[in-house]
Amino acid sequence: MISKQINETKNLINEGLTPDVLVLAELEGNDRILCQITSRLVQDKYAIQLDEDDFAKGSLKQRSNIRPNRIFTADVGIILYRIGHLKADKLDEVIVQVVKILEQ
After folding, report:
1. pLDDT tens for each residue of 53-81
2. What CATH number is attached to the domain comprising 23?
3. More confident call, 43 vs 5
4. Helix or strand or coil: residue 54?
5. What are phi and psi of 84, to 5 degrees?
6. pTM of the full structure
7. Residue 77 — φ and ψ, nearest 5°?
8. Residue 48 structural domain
């Protein structure tokens, strides 16, 4: 699931910027494991390009990058709303990359 995240950084909220995140896992209680999504076309070895056709449902407004090297746990309360769902093959690609990073 792709979601819109509330960023607690005051300057970002004032500028109307709320980052997108990929929900990797829903844990017991209110915790979620999230992965950063950025509209900046990052060129590191971990970035995974995210295009409109990678979605089974919904979409982002622009081409983006999933950053599997930027994962974190957060309370479900910071998630504003659901944007969409990735196709299974794209989600698998992200999970494989996360596992590769953890195995280094």
Report:
1. 999 999 888 889 999 999 999 988 888 88
2. 2.30.30.110
3. 43
4. helix
5. 175, -170
6. 0.81
7. -65, -15
8. 2-103
